[in-house]
Design brief:
Length: about 290
């Protein structure tokens, strides 16, 4: 797969995941956080196993280990995301969660023991200002419980991006995608029995939400992300996360009736600038070196 094709696939994956905010909001009106996660990923596991069972074996031992690691971190990401959406608008959650874009180069700098680029530092500063605006209330700056969960999801997603890039170099990316979905199902099922009273969806709305989340957002989005990332860089993967909050905000305002205050609009603008300016600076620098 060419880098251009991988970029198109990655963009489609991110957009598919963006629609999940809308369906999660609807689904959690009747189902618990972990209950919805468990049913969603159960359906996704069954569908993938039925459609691609021949593609799933043989599987290397290292792939099993790496897929398990990805599954655990992705479970944390999904749990934080769902709990954030329980109390905060989808637009706020999506923008805070996708600050992972600026966390990726910072984590790369920490793990490689190199200083971040000027573009990365500038992006972090502008994005932090945007987060401040998003979390501002008339009484001052204060992070709500939902916003803390969203930022925790952002850190988890940045770790997932880096781990996926590393593991996809030596393991079958499709195997990794399936294993992480399997582990999210297992862990969310355990959490549902421990913290909630799990049940199956009871009406066509709940089943419709589960099927959309399982087929479009999970089966397509989660499974093919490692495939796309294998043919591109983690930095570029992080850049495409900017599509997620934009799509989620549009859906939140038009379909969920969410409102955006002037402070939230300012925060969104700063985050968009913080996400895009480093990309433009790095692109310009590369052209000058050629």
């Amino acid at each position: 797969m060419s880098e251009k094709s991988a970029s198109i696939l990655l963009a489609a994956v991110i957009i598919a995941r963006a629609t999940s905010y809308y369906f999660i909001k609807i689904g959690m009106e009747g189902l618990g956080v972990f209950n919805l996660l468990a049913v969603r990923f159960f359906v996704a596991v069954i569908l993938l196993a039925l459609l691609f069972h021949k593609r799933l074996h043989p599987m290397k031992r290292s792939t099993l280990i790496h897929g398990t690691i990805l599954g655990v971190v992705f479970f944390a990401l999904m749990a934080f995301e769902f709990m954030a959406l329980k109390t905060s608008p989808s637009s706020t959650v999506s923008f805070l969660e996708n600050t992972s874009i600026v966390l990726v180069p910072l984590l790369i700098a920490v793990t490689t023991r190199t200083l971040p680029t000027k573009a990365a530092i500038l992006g972090v500063i502008i994005t932090i200002i945007g987060v401040g605006f998003l979390t501002y209330t008339p009484g001052g700056f204060a992070l709500t419980r939902g916003e803390i969960f969203a930022l925790s999801a952002a850190l988890s997603y940045a770790i997932v991006i880096l781990l996926t890039a590393r593991f996809a170099e030596e393991d079958d990316p499709f195997h990794l995608g399936f294993l992480q979905i399997l582990w999210i199902f297992i862990l969310s099922t355990l959490a549902a029995f421990l913290a909630e009273t799990p049940r199956w969806p009871e009406n066509h709305v709940e089943w419709g939400v589960v099927l959309m989340l399982a087929v479009v957002c999970t089966g397509f989005g989660f499974t093919l992300q490692p495939v796309a990332q294998r043919h591109t860089t983690p930095e570029r993967a992080g850049m495409f996360c900017a599509l997620n909050p934009m799509c989620a905000t549009i859906m939140g305002v038009t379909l969920l009736g969410e409102t955006l205050s002037s402070y939230k609009m300012a925060g969104i603008l700063c985050i968009v600038i913080g996400l895009t300016v480093p990309i433009l600076m790095e692109s310009r620098k590369k052209k000058q070196l050629q």
